[in-house]
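Here is an idea for our session: we take a single protein and study its fold together. To get us started, please write out a protein record for me. Once you have written the record down, we can walk along the chain together.
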Amino acid sequence: MRDWRVSAGLAAGLTLMAMLLSSAAPAREPAAAATDQVHRIGSFTVAFRPDTQTLARLSPMAGFDFVPSGRGAERRGDGYVHIGDVHLRLRVGGGGWRDFASANARRPIRPLAPRGDELARADISGTMGEGFPLAIERAWLRQGDALVMRVTLANAGTAPVEVGGMGLPMVFDNIITDRNLEQAHAQANFVDPYIGQDAGYLQVTRLNGQGPALLVLPDGRTPLEAYRIIREKGNAGPGDLFTDRTRRLQTAEGFYDWMIASKAMAEPGAGEPWNPPTGFTLAPGERRSFGVRFVAAPAIRAVEPTLMAQRRPVVIGIPGYVVPSDAPADLFVKAPQPIREVAIFPAGAMRLERVPGPAGWARYRVEAKGWGRARVAITYADGSIQTVHYYLTKPLAQVSADIGRFTTTRQWFDDPRDPFRRAPAILSYDREADRVVTQDQRVWIAGLSDEGGAGAWLAAAMKQLDHPDRAEIAKLERMIDETIVGKLQVAEGPQAGGVRKSLFWYDPKTFARYYDKSIDWSSWASWDAKQAADLGRSYNYPHVAAAHWVMYRLARNHAGLVRRHDWRWYLEWAYRTTVAMMRDAPHYAQFGQMEGEVFLEILLDLQREGMTREAAEVERLMRARADHWRTLRYPFGSEMAWDSTGQPEVYAWMRHFGHSREAEITREVILGYDPAIPHWGYNGNARRYWDFLYGGKVKRIERQIHHYGSALNAVPLFDAFRRDPADFHLLRVAYGGFMGGITNVDREGFASAAFHSEPDMMRWDPYSGDYGMGYFGHAYAAATYLVRHPELGWLGFGGTVRDANGAIEIVPHDGARRRLFVAPAGQWITLAAGRIRSARWLPAARRIELLLDPADATTPAARLSVEAPAGGPAFVPDRGVPERGFHSVPLSAEVTRLVLAPR
């Protein structure tokens, strides 16, 4: 995210903060034109445009429409796609590929008399373009409570016609432009794909997280083979007909094609597609039909029950679809027909073993044998195929070690001749060039601040929270002493604690020989020294506060790791950073900050340490923010027009100050943009599609796979689950985001900003960018969860479970082994020092037994806290001395056994 006050050029194109703080254009009420054909199907009001018979309205309630009907007038005419349009790439008799698009140049369609349950039918061949070699009919049908669109291709010629690409545009109202936040949350929606072949579907959810949700399902054999962006006309390649004239912005993600066939859509140099690309050939006289069904789910949590009711196959991965090599997972499959075969691609990447499962479900134990992307293909009795997408990785503790090593060696910058005095520091990294980024047009990326510049060193700092390494900590101590405090952060005076926007800037007069002449330095993002020194961007402050806080925790709870300063010095600097944000950056501080939970942790630690004056000041400042948020229906503004960044901190303070209703609204809003889908890339993937512009090497609007929002938004969902352990959906989505951010880390420890999901790339961005904000969420939330699902039985999220004669044992594999939630007991166990080797829950005795690792040189004692977030009493350990809100338990050379039970 950027400070838009310096961007006159981009501000002209994006509606951003002005949209939030000034009067927005009036909301457009979904309404059919006088001549539209209107029908009632189940809970939907449906309308078709009479000229094109494309979908004009799909409204389940007054004031809301899944399609952008309120923009119907501006989106009429050539070049605007709608649901009901078709994209085809064809060739005849082995000739060259040609593209045909029904919306490119509208021509009259030929209406046909509806038959049976058809609502409308037409021959749309005439609008496909000159030389179209097929006949194409499209029908709209009512089938029970579902609307069905069916497209039939017919070859009336004498030569075979090969279909190498077929897309059905999916046009939903994801346009936030000209809406304020309240209007956007009430009226706009987001779309998430399950790119699962014959079992694929789209999930369309309202921004406010409320029902109903819309499911777009295959009708007949209509695989969701790929999901391809419909590029903005004018920004597409020459001759590209698969475009739309709607402007793609931070306020408008764009529309996508449901790709039934994609064989001829391959892009040179692109990574492997999600599914093998296919095509098909129509012989002379042959016909083939495809279609989709539009079905309402009463709520987001009812998506899977609705799929089952529609006799669609459902898979549930526990704990998700990212599988470390030391932590087997489970895959549960419920389908209306038998499983014929299960195959793994690439061969040998995984091991699937059928194990006993609950009635009605097939259960497979999943073990990672390789590394990277993998795919499970389930073939059913009718020959249909469902694909489930996995990512295989190292044990989480090893991933953490890799991050620490890479950031403090390959990304370590210690050049005393640097004219910007950035040394010593951990700089952004370009994996493509395999070197640190010392200059970029977007100066913050090389300037150690903002998300794109602070991400690398924040990841290195957060890695130390649960995996401290003395050599790495020594480098961080140097960076804090010599570069952060005094350079990036004001060290003294009335603005002490203030954080600058960048330590790199563009000044050709002073540093004429430094700058790369191949870079365009005329951009608004090439700040001068004055702009770089500005203290007014609040989003820069949590990164610095988090670094100070981690060092405080290490100094306070471990022996000999931190040597330059004592714990108080770091906690005081964390406090100063918090206060400085409110003093020097009040404008954006009115919004939730990424990593904003760190301010709550700082407050709690100030209280534990008896620093009552400082704690009172922080609480006063944060209460004022919370009181302001309570006056807003959706208090999730930011420097962007819409964002998925501020909700976690808003949730944290609402909970802290006892505002349950506002916290619950926030939780549901997160679920509106953070789905549970059987795909490692989309499961728990909090929506983000603009930050490649500001932190990536490949700069464009594009749905990002596991940008930092995934792990950050997992934090409040985990908390919400601990308060309501019956809400299993929360845990699944949270764990998807928590693990999703690990996929950004390559085998050597380089962490990418995000994955490019468009078919022309399908690979990780080469820049480290803002990855560290996500790793904050991962490190902060790392925990193991023991749950008993009423249908699936005993399950472990982050740990392996064994039922030993009624004693339920769980062995943590979450990487940290410092946090455990025993859901049946409602107990949240956290260790500020020490590690959990294993735990047992004894339901009959209502007792938890913990085994803790032996002492080591820096951890002579465990510091343990037990809470009961869902209510009721917290269990009490059978040993330990109360100390600053923890129980301090001496460790020995042997494993330590603790028993937790009600008082």
